[in-house]
Amino acid sequence: MVPADSFREDVIAGLSLPQKALSPKYFYDAQGSRLFEAICRLKEYYPTRSELALTHLHLREIASFARKGSTLIEYGSGESAKSRLLIQALRPSAYIPVDISADALRGAAAMLRRRFAWLDIRAVHGDFSRPLKIPVAQAKGRRVIYFPGSTIGNLTPEEAHAFLRTTRGQVGPRGAMLVGVDLKKDANVLHAAYNDAKGVTAAFNLNLLARINRELRGDFRLRRFRHYAFYNAALGRVEMHLVSLERQTVNVGDHRFSFEAGESIHTENSYKYSIEGFRALARSAGFKGGKVWLDRRGMFSLHGLEAA
């Protein structure tokens, strides 16, 4: 679990920067997790749908790459929708879901225990971006880290490289990784995915301020902020911000922060990669690119990486 003190410290530090910023990992309290699940069902939000389609399409190959009887470690397990397919095909010796949201983790683990009574499930509540103790001591088979979605895109390329190097160390010399990577595409498609017509993504973004109010004695007035997302072509990423609509002062516990009209809090990046660009990043972190699977429209990719 991410301690309350860490949340408080990160929020205070982020709001003290010249460009105010908050980490996207704090989106996922109970309400945030529910909103993200709703985002994944939106017609504009292609990543979940595209990755699920490619998983169905290439499931036998993906399971063959991971190898039956492996220990499957999933970072950011959430609803575990794609995991269910992989578990059924792979029949891992153990499944270790890791998630920052305790509610999402409990719900997913309970559902999987009902569906796969034979499966050894060892849920870990924690932040996979920080050092974690993964219970693999008695696990059989090779270790495979499953990192679906486009979560790796939330990291800068430098952060992604460091994360991949850490992951390479966790799986060991015979290990592997399955990682979902969103691909570069038309800017209009990207804009629609992060600015849906129903405003669910806006509510998800604004819930971060509501969480600060609930947990850290904040007094953000959500109607004074607006969701803003755009594709930064120069950096190859979608950026999400919360823009102050007026000049105002906000308190978080004993700390006070001033906002000018138009000033923003940068809440998320979502980097988009070319296939070769991501493979080069993985190679530099100690993996060799074994396989790449795409959905039929070429919107999203799943990379099978083996420890070099």
Task: Give an overview of the whole structure.
Helix 2 packs antiparallel against helix 8 and helix 3 (46-66) runs parallel beside helix 4 (81-90). The strands form 3 sheets. This protein has a 7-stranded mixed beta sheet, with helices on both faces. The radius of gyration is 19 Å and the shape is globular. The chain has helices at residues 4-15, 30-39, 46-66, 81-90, 102-115, 157-171, 187-194, 200-216, 275-284, and strands spanning 71-75, 94-99, 124-125, 143-147, 176-182, 225-232, 237-244, 248-252, 255-259, 264-271, 287-294, 300-307. It contains 9 helices and 12 strands. The mean pLDDT is 92. Strand 1 (71-75), helix 4 (81-90) and strand 2 (94-99) form a beta-alpha-beta unit. It has 308 residues and is of the alpha/beta class. It folds into 2 domains: 4-39 and 187-271, no CATH class; 46-185 and 273-307, Vaccinia Virus protein VP39 (Rossmann fold).
